[in-house]
Description:
Elements: H1 17-24, E1 27-33, H2 38-47, H3 66-72, E2 77-78, E3 84-85, H4 98-104, E4 108-114, E5 133-137, E6 148-149, E7 159-160, E8 163-164, E9 167-168, H5 175-188, E10 196-199, H6 222-246, E11 255-258, H7 281-284, E12 288-291, E13 300-307, H8 310-319, H9 335-340, E14 348-352, E15 361-364, E16 367-370, E17 373-376, H10 392-406, H11 429-433, H12 437-447
Parallel strand pairs: 1-13, 4-5, 4-10
Antiparallel strand pairs: 1-12, 2-3, 5-8, 6-7, 8-9, 11-12, 14-15, 15-16, 16-17
Helix pairs in contact: 1-6, 5-6
Amino acid sequence: MGWNQPGFNGGRKGLTPNIDKLAGESLKLTQFYTHSVCAPTRAAFLTGRYAFRTWSDWRSEDFGKPSYLKALGLTLAHNERGEPTRRIHALDTRERTIAEALREAGYFTALVGKWHLGEWLDEHLPMGQGFMHQYGHYAWGIDYYTKTIVHNAPARFAVYDWHRNQQPLREEGYATDLFAAEAARVIAKQTREKPFFLYVPFNAVHGPLNPPPGFSGNKNDPLAIRDAMLRNLDDAVGRIVKAVDKHGFRDNTLVIFTNDNGPVLEEMSTPWRGTKNTTFEGGVRVPCLLRWPGHTEPGTANNGMMFIADWYSTFITLAGGKHEQERKVDALDMTSMLFQNKPSPRNEIVFEVEGSVRLPTLRSGDWKLMGDMLYNLEADPGERTDLAARNPEVVKRLEARLAKVGAERPPLGDKPLLMDPPLPYIYGLKENREPPKWLVDHVEKVRATQPKEWAPGETPWPQAPKGAFASQQP
């Protein structure tokens, strides 16, 4: 979702009435940042650590794509039968997640939505990472109706990806609507006696572009479909907020609405420059709302700098949990900024370091170094004027800082574990051992509609991004 898509940030009036209503009841953050694609942002949110520290700046599916593997200095793996397959890559189970920290503090923890931090081994799935309830899909992006992901790179055919508590789930309906219904069910089961943490990462408005039920527009108009998907997401957000209020949790629940990265179209980022998969402001600066009656002032804004990982330490403080842990966090406790109107303690964000598929990028104060480009965000928030040549001392200082932080990246290793079979019927090693007949039949039906041949060099997935303008690659 782009910065200017919701109405409260300048989007078309009437497209997001529920989110806009929430904005009127909330504190709005105007300098809230994420990583520039989904999996890195999710890892940072869950661990409080920059994505490079867990190698989550590389997604699980990248380890089955030759162009990404080449950038890593790896080759496409083959199993003992000689079949090409992907190397297993996921969020290390030894990482402490916010779900684990809050569970330790006495919270019920639930995930409803998209996981995207490992789709095969039990220890990498949500219930192996601190969640007591799971619903939704494990991988990057499902068809909203069939619940299949279009490919399992390097395999080029569909895989089923719909689960409740890590068991195959047969369910009709549109994914966004189903997520809202499940979230409302989870909220309805909670009591005043036990606090809860509900993480609802929608796949909307991510592709594929599947028009929601009741769509009456032009099915050949991608912008009309995107608008309809956003309107459907807005309805889902409204249903979840309504459930919080209906069941008596309004006054003692912090409701947060935000996004994981920028849009695929730059026109949805204005006034910022850039898109998803770039570290221009349009790729990493996203809408964020907080509603907590008695603690946040409705209809106000805070311009303090905050990064997605900061929720980790902030949530632990609010829950009365334990901050002590083995692995270093990058998260900063933002309670004083958010709820006491104090200045932000954050003055720096490391978006990418050397070894990422994207350009090394650092924000330090008003300065932002992106590859060999330098911008002053206070004077030039639209990042139109590269000041690197005029400020060599600033470039040198920020390059040195990036190099120092980047040196903390741990070794990747050779990733010896392989997904086998290379083309499962459903994600989850255990779930795929004996998939039910309905699931096999459903997946075979979807696969029968997919292309059987591809021209040399063509793939059903995009190639690894290169440079600052990755979104403009063919």
